[in-house]
Structure formats: C-alpha cells, structure tokens
Amino acid sequence: MRTLDTKEIADCVYRLARKAGVTLTPACHAALESAAARETGAARFALETVLMNEATAKAERMPVCQDTGMAVVLLELGQDVHLTGAPLKEAVNDGVRRAYRDGYFRKSICDPLTRENTGDNTPAHLHLDMVAGENVAVTFLPKGFGSENMSRLVMLTPSQGRAGIVDTIVETVKIAGSRPCPPVCVGVGIGGAFDSCAFLAKKALTREVGSRSPREDVASIEEEALEKINALNIGPQGFGGNVTALSVACEIAPTHIAGLPVAVNIQCHCVRCEKEVL
Amino acid sequence: MKRLTLPLSDEETRALRAGEGVLLSGVIYTARDCAHKRLFALLDEGKPLPVDLKETYIYYAGPCPAPEGKACGSCGPTTSARMNAFAPRLLDLGLRGMIGKGEMSEETRAALRRNGRVYFAAVGGAGAAYGNAIQKMELVAFPDLLSEAIYRMEVVDFPLVVAIDSLGNSVYDR
Lengths: 278, 174
Prior knowledge:
A: 4-stranded mixed sheet; 4-stranded mixed sheet; 8 helices; B: 7 strands
C-alpha cells in the first residue's frame, strides 16, 4: 500500500494545466505543419497564422487560444494507493484554480441558467477510474466550447452497423462546418450506454493526434471517416481545402443487444493535452 | 497583404472581396452572447447603448486576463454563428461591421448586403497572436460579465480574411 497526499495530485494538475494552456501537443504541431503544406490561399494563410501563433504563445508564455477551456481531468487511480490530505475533488479544483490564476487563463465556467461565472474556472470536470497497481495517472485536457458545441450523440439501431457509424461521424463534421475551428480532431465513442458512450468520445480526444486503434476493424472506421471528412472541402477555418480533420479516433465498449450508441466529440485544431504518472 | 485602418470609408468597404486577406488596425469593441443580450434589453427598453453603433466594429471575443506589461491576454475570435440572433438588427441600426470566426446565417448575410457592411474572419485558435496585436484595452460596459464584458481595443495589424463582403459574397460558399 502506497500513501499519497492529495496535495501532490493538486500540484500535478497545476503543472499539467499551466503547460497545456500554452502548448500544442507535438503530434498536433506535426499534423498542422503537414496540413499547411497541403493547402493554398486563405486555407494556407489560416494554418500559417496558427503555426505563427504557436510560436508567439511559446515565446510570450501566453495561452495558444483564449478559450483555455473547461478543465477536463482524467484520473486513473491505482487501488493500492491510500490518499491522505484534502478530499480528492478539492485537490483537483485547487490545482485548476491556481493554474488558471497564475497562467492568466480565461475563466470560462458559469452557472447554466444565471450565467454567473464561478470566477476561477472550477469545478473541474473530473473522471475517476480505479485501476490495478499503486500509480496515479493524470491527464489534463483543456476543452474549448466552440468545438464542444458541435458535438452529437446518436442512438443508432444495431442494423445500421458500421456504415451508420461512419455516416454519423462524417455528418456531424459536415453540420459543424466552419464553426468548430477546423481542421478538427474527432473523438468518437462507439457502444456503451448514453452516458458512457459520450465519455468514450471524450477519452478518444486524449489519444495522440493521428494514432490508430489497435483493433483493425475500429482503425478501418477511423481511416474511412477521416478520408470522407477530408473530401467535404470545408477546409481550415471553413475556407475550403483538403484538410477538414487532422484525425479521427474511436474508442469502443460493449453495448446492449438492442442498441448502437455513437457519440462524436469535436475538438478544434488547438489540441492541448498533457499527461503525467505519479 | 492590404493594410486598412478603421473606420473604413464606404469606398474602402465596398472594394473588399470575400476571401482576400487584410491587416486591420484601429478601434474595435468586444461583445459575445451575454453582452448582446444586454444590448438588446437596453434597445427594447428604449435606453441608450454604451457604444455608438454607427462608429462600432464588434469583435466576437472574450479575452484572457492581461499579464503584467501587456494590454491584453490571448484574445482570438469566438464562433460568430451564435450571434446570428443579434447581428441583423444591429446592422440595421448602423453597426459598421463584425469580426469573428465561421459562417453566419442567410439573415446576417442579407443584412450585410442591405447595409453595405463587411464581416471579417479572424483565425480561430490564434489567441496569442491577436492578443499580442492589442495595444490598448479598456472596459466599457458590464464589468460583472468578466471576459464577456464589452471592451474597447486598439489593435494593430490584425490578420483577417474578408468572410462576407458588402455584396453578400461569402468565403464559406462552395
């Protein structure tokens, strides 16, 4: 049994949030560079501005995007860890609160009805998973809402199958059009239930940009959907072009014999995701 | 790329074509969903607005807080389509133009054409670049809205694309 003060988790969330706010992942950067080389005109101008912006953010230590997002924290907690100190949720919120204050990040969390801002970007959106062992794996995903707004969940019928899944993914990106800051990354949940399917889609967005599912049939859905999305000619910022999506990542889980839930979570081209194992 | 300074003359505005890149300097005002709702409430009550629409270009944006030594933090555009409910009426009341990201509705497009105005697209996700181009910023209205308040900004060389021109041509058409 390992003992861990939740202060260490708070500090880890703080470190990851500070870094994520001002940094694109290396895989995202590579995908953007390769996309810029495939575009011309306004689409190329958009991607070059995005790459220039990344350099400015780094040099000035400014957030790459002003939408520093809802703080999504995925925590895989080893079951041989005994947590001490402040309650876990409080510790995570403490890390978020300090990071958004010290990093000069925007506070974007508000009451859904009164729209009153909580003022410190808490509460974090915490997903907790119990796993074997005595490690704690922390993933921090600042999730912007221009793209979140364009996400969808559809309850397909089992007979709609693979074709229905691909159509749902492509149609979601088509409906979103220029609004979510394309080229987008698409996280897809396949299976599970209404709620767990949506979580799978979010979890898919924490995968490295361009990575493929280890399951061949799932990887082939990712590849086909990506190809069809990039034939839509929405292009960077909706200016038209060859690159409407940088990647499609699907996560799957067993579902009920009567159903086929598919969730499509859209992420803009600003993929900011940091991970650490404690 | 063409360099322009706000306010644009009618001639300059009419000469812009969808898809062309410009570097824009001058005074703009931020407003997003909540600020627009409040502007509409004031209009409906017949009360004066905190800005003179006839002199105003709206930037659909909500900045990050300014770090020390800077006028403004990161400040890229937000999705303009959410403001389709507001843009036509404001344009008919004299609004000079908008800056945001992404397509807007047919109603907004018709209002731009009707009033001979232009909608510019900033590059979404380039918040640091735009924030750095803001030389001066001051709060104008609705301070309780924090980043969603109305701010007056003096900007230099904002990299933009003409998204919908005064004839109603759109860079988003295929």
